[in-house]
Amino acid sequence: MNKQSDPKYPASFTRRRFLQGTAAMAALAGLGRLAPAYAWQQTGNLVAEKTVSGNTDIFDLTIGHTPMDIGGRSANPITINGSIPGPLIRMQEGREVMLRVTNNLSESTSIHWHGILLPENMDGVPGVSFPGIEPGETFIYRYPVKQSGTYWYHSHSGLQEQLGHYGPLIVDPAQPEPFEYDRDYVVMLSDWTYDDPYHVLANLKKAEGYYNYQKRTTGDFFKDVSTMGWGPAMDKWQMWGQMRMSSRDILDVTGSVYTYLINGLPSGSNWTGLFRRGEKIRLRFINGSAMSFFDVRIPGLKMTVVAADGQNVEPVPIDEFRIGVAETYDVIVEPDGDRAYTVFAESMDRSGYVSATLAPREGMTAPVPDPRPQPVERGMKSMGMDHGSMGHGDMNMDMSSQNTMDQDSMQMDMSADNNSMSGGMDHSKMNMSAEQGSGMQHDMNNMGSGSDWVLKDRKISHGPDNHGAGAAMVSPNPMNRMDDPGIGLENVGHKVLVYNDLRGLHPWPDQREPQREIELHLTGNMERYMWSFDGEKFSEVDGPIRFHHGERLRLILVNDTMMDHPIHLHGMWMELENKHGKYRPRKHTLSVKPGEMLSAQITADAPGDWAFHCHLLYHMKAGMFRVVSVA
Amino acid sequence: MKPKKPGWPIPVHDNTLYSKLMIDRLEYAWSDEEDSVNWEGQYWYGGDYNRLYIEGEGEDVVSGGEGGEIETLDILYSRMIAPFWDVQMGGGYQREYGPGPDKERGFAVLGIQGLAPYWFEIDANLRLSDDGDASADLEAEYDWMLTQRTILQGRFETAYAGNDVPEFGIGKGFTNAKFGLRLRYEFRREFAPYIGVSWNKYLGDTADLREAEGEDTDHTAVLAGVRMWF
Ligand SMILES: [Cu+2]
Questions:
Q1: Which residues 6+ apart lie within 8 Å of A43 measured at CB?
Q2: Which tens digits make up the pLDDT trace of A263-310?
Q3: Tens digits of per-residue pLDDT, B110-156?
Q4: What pTM value is reported for the model?
Q5: Which helix H or strand E contains A299, and what residues bound it?
Q6: What average pLDDT does the segment A187-203 reach?
């Protein structure tokens, strides 16, 4: 057994760059003393510490608490090998890995290899795949590496992930990649709180909207009155009031308690990735947050998305992308000119941001963009109540994106609603009953993005009790929102990535038509901070969701809540059924927008029990979790 | 679901029990007649569906009179039956203390609590006393968010008595209507001092009873207090 660096470390790594890197390290030393190694590797081309033995790459990981400074305040995060995020794990497709994980915490822990296909007992979910790793114990994960791309890993125990228990994972492909680049950086986004995560959860449970300091005020109402007039403003107030919903529920936990991090460093530390003029840089964005969706852009630079959730896609040039919790996007940028660029990641609700820099020399910075107007506000779409098909043509139904009302569309919306909804809206649930809704459903589903949508004629079915008390609302007409960049990004004036832009490079091996459909509704009751599937928390269901081994499935997700949920399936891919037919992008995490319905094809080829859950940590903890059993 | 294998944990514990002590009002009230300290609060313990509630409200006169009243002190089992509604049932207690002998009575209580359309917080109860007297009470609150931290709360309270209970100064019919306006500032979500006014009017037979005893039938007070929770 010999200790060595990654053999793939490129020859282009020159002495000059090495010196550059050393100077940069010195500059960073005062800031992020305990930042992980790849945060120091400002020359790019990531190296991972490992031991090689025959066909096996061995990683040793020790989990413990390490007191350190985060953004000028003392903190006690959970670290892996002493850093937050943990070290880079770099695997090689076709080889085998062995990961020896030692628990130095005083509680049980685990590591889940997010997005990696592996045997059931190596998946790292306590209670589903194994018993967990007890204090003082070393657990050895060992599995063959059968894929490539950008992934990450994190704890699946309690709320440890919120405390820093996560890190990046890269798998180098066996075949050459279909794109070129000169440098390679991990850009791992996360959210940090100095508060105890259990206290954060208790606050959410005890006080609805505890962290939301962007609620609608009386002033917002009068702003509506001045832009829309009294009638429509009252109608709008009435509509939300009848449902007892907040149009400003964008993120549960916000910048009011979070410090956002890139590679473990807050904005002030200004993590810098160095480049030489004319080089192509691969940025591997990983959203390792507990609760934060980010909108990412690099002002002045076009980004070309080449992979999503580790899987190559047809390159798509964009100016901005929204990254759901647990998703990964690889982009390539080509900075030209002797100048710095700011990598800017705003939380989706605009309550905070984190920035970093790409520059030809360390110490350079570029202007940090002004955070965009807040707050953003949800519209009718988010309730699955879009009435665009009812004779109003293709107007934009979202009532507002940037706190300004689209007066015309608002008036039209409301007049349509008043007629058609009064019946359904009187109930304690916003429920368009079947009698009212059936005529519309058909039309509705034909709109959105095209007749090629597999769910276009689908009638959705809510349970007879509309999923019970655990579901505060149901979406009467969930829609195709795969052409929709999401709240706050509708009118930004540049290209924002949408799910319909993702086109797989190849059709996947299994092209059988789905033999069976499973429809699951994402449900919640914000007043009580209850989150569930089909109105039932994990503890309320008797058994797993059953997949038959070898079958081809269509999983249909319907979002009946006002929030975006990143839904993650362990052990198997989900092939998103967007507009690209058999060139479906395959993903491990699907972000489902409010009022959205989408589907994915799954080949149930991984026997065993697998976790399936919302990747918002506190949603999972509140019950939005299932076990999928493949047998 | 039960553990998959002996000794294995449950993957997600979504049944954690929480508790919250909410002191809605702890205030000093100035009026031309008397000054008093008023309080109202509730404590709950439990999960998403089932909770134990202890709720109470009262006043203690500190000048211009003596004594005070525990208007209600209820211990209730609370069950969520619809997304925004709990049904509550249990026992209640009322006590008047002062110069004379203390007066007290107990109740069986059946109530609902929840969030009505348009974000009105509602707490309504039916009561049957140990002497067989029936009554009902209703409390409604509405919060106007003036800014993210400045909130104007409107409050309305009324009660209905099924029969005369002279001992407690209650006449059959609607007994009183109480309006309050409180302007609070949330330094933290958990801590918000406020100022306000309240106006209480006794109605019908109850008003007559009080008049006969030489008491005022309506009552305006200026308030300063704090709302906090843990
Ligand atoms: Cu969720």
A1: A13, A17, A18, A20, A21, A24, A183, A274
A2: 999 998 899 999 998 899 999 999 999 999 999 999 999 999 999 999
A3: 999 999 999 999 999 999 999 999 999 999 999 999 999 999 999 99
A4: 0.89
A5: none
A6: 97
Are B118 and A241 in contact (CB < 8 Å)?
Answer: yes
* Sequence letter at residue A120: E
A563 CA → ligand 1 middle, Å: 7
ipTM score assigned to the predicted complex: 0.95
Count other C-beta atoms under 10 Å from residue A434's C-beta. Answer: 12
- List Cα–Cα distances, B54 to A626, B85, B192, in angstroms: 35, 17, 22
Place of tokens 């007191």: A67
- The CA distance from A23 to A31, in Å, is 14
Chain B residue numbers with beta carbons less than 8 Å from the beta carbon of A130 are 8
Q: Nearest by CB to A128, from B4, B20, B119: name it.
A: B4
Ligand 1 centre from A616 Cα, in Å?
Answer: 5
The pLDDT tens digits for A523-572 are 999 999 999 999 999 999 999 999 999 999 999 999 999 999 999 999 99
Task: Return the SS3 of A159.
Answer: coil
DSSP string spanning A512-542?
A: PPPSEEEEEEEEEEGGGTEEEETTB-GGG-S
Nearest CA in chain B to A614: B12
Residue B46 gets the label, from left (phi > 0), alpha (psi -120 to 50) or beta, of left
Q: A36-45, A167-176, A612-621, B125-134: which has the minimum mean pLDDT?
A: A36-45
